[in-house]
Design goal:
By secondary structure, this protein is an alpha/beta fold. Helices cover 43% and strands 14% of the residues.
Length: 322
């Protein structure tokens, strides 16, 4: 088996058909693959619908343990040399797999490759007219340099998990997703993969994955009013910084990226969760200081004179909003 496509699902009877139809053989000729759907306790008939309408799909149950656990269930059952994770409302564009798998086959040192994607807004079938403008993860075609990806991830710039095709061996080496995390599971996996030697290359072949916009959903990963998730985000960054030091990443750019990311969250949290915000600010100061203030030249100069904290406070005071 060449490719295993792993799809966690929960109560998606109205959408999963679009995902599965986009994976039909007519759209991806010549790719020997299996489709694994891991149902996480659906109560809307999703399991029964897939079993009846898509008998070729490998159906597994996960009993409400969450998406990260469902992905691990699929990973450990997969037979493919390569792995792709999808959500059960994504769509895969025609011929998305071919050139990427050819790239992985031709370059055994590559642990993964990724492609282009678009985000669209729809509660039904894909509609090109409903593609949303998004700043996207850059296409980096250098294969022997993981540092740009690491800096991006430390700074909070992430690629969608569902745009990546992985070599199964490196996912097993990382033991899959960390199911103890309630948030940032994909970020954690990607950074651990880099620490385990991941080399990843973009393939720009005019094919895409189409990702349904989730902003109107009540998302499990949204930490806004969950102090536990905010603390977990911070704890994960503390662990990452310790790993950076242990693995000899000494360049200041890595620590600056982490500090800027954490400081950005301090700005959001200082009124919402003041106590947690103080922990964020203390960690940002510890990792790398002062941080870079982005935006208008006036505020960057203000940051140089007053420091980033006072500059942020002055900015919002002058704007009469927060």
């Amino acid at each position: 088996m060449l490719l295993s496509i792993i799809i966690p699902t929960f109560n998606r009877i109205n959408l999963v058909k679009y995902t599965l139809d986009s994976l039909d053989d007519t759209h991806h000729k010549g790719i020997n693959r299996e489709i694994i759907v891991v149902d996480d306790g659906s109560a809307d008939g999703t399991w029964e619908f897939i079993a009846k309408e898509y008998p070729e799909v490998v159906l597994l149950k996960n009993k409400g343990k969450g998406a990260a656990s469902a992905r691990n269930t699929g990973l450990f059952a997969a037979k493919g040399k390569y792995i792709m994770y999808l959500d059960s409302d994504d769509l895969v564009g025609e011929n998305f797999f071919a050139q990427k798998i050819n790239m992985l086959e031709a370059h055994p040192a590559l642990g993964a490759c990724y492609g282009e994607y678009d985000v669209f807004a729809s509660d039904g079938a894909f509609d090109p007219a409903k593609i949303l403008f998004r700043h996207k993860y850059p296409l980096i075609t250098a294969a022997d340099d993981s540092e740009p990806h690491l800096v991006n991830y430390l700074a909070g710039t992430f690629m969608p998990l569902n745009a990546i095709i992985w070599r199964r061996d490196i996912l097993l080496q990382c033991k899959g997703h960390d199911t103890n995390l309630a948030i940032n599971q994909d970020v954690d996996l990607f950074i651990r993969a880099i620490f385990n030697g991941l080399k990843i290359r973009a393939v720009a072949d005019n094919t895409k994955v189409f990702i349904r916009n989730h902003e109107l959903d009540k998302r499990v990963g949204d930490p806004m009013n969950d102090s536990g998730k905010w603390l977990q985000i911070l704890e994960l960054r503390k662990n990452i910084v310790e790993s950076l030091k242990a693995k000899g990443y000494n360049d200041a750019k890595f620590y600056r990226a982490v500090s800027n990311y954490i400081f950005g969250y301090w700005k959001k949290l200082r009124h919402l969760h003041p106590g947690i915000a103080r922990e964020y600010l203390a960690f940002s100061r510890k990792v790398y200081w002062p941080v870079d203030i982005r935006g208008h030249l006036f505020y960057r100069l203000l940051s140089k004179i007053l420091g980033p904290v006072r500059a942020v406070e002055m900015k919002y005071f002058l704007l009469k909003r927060d």
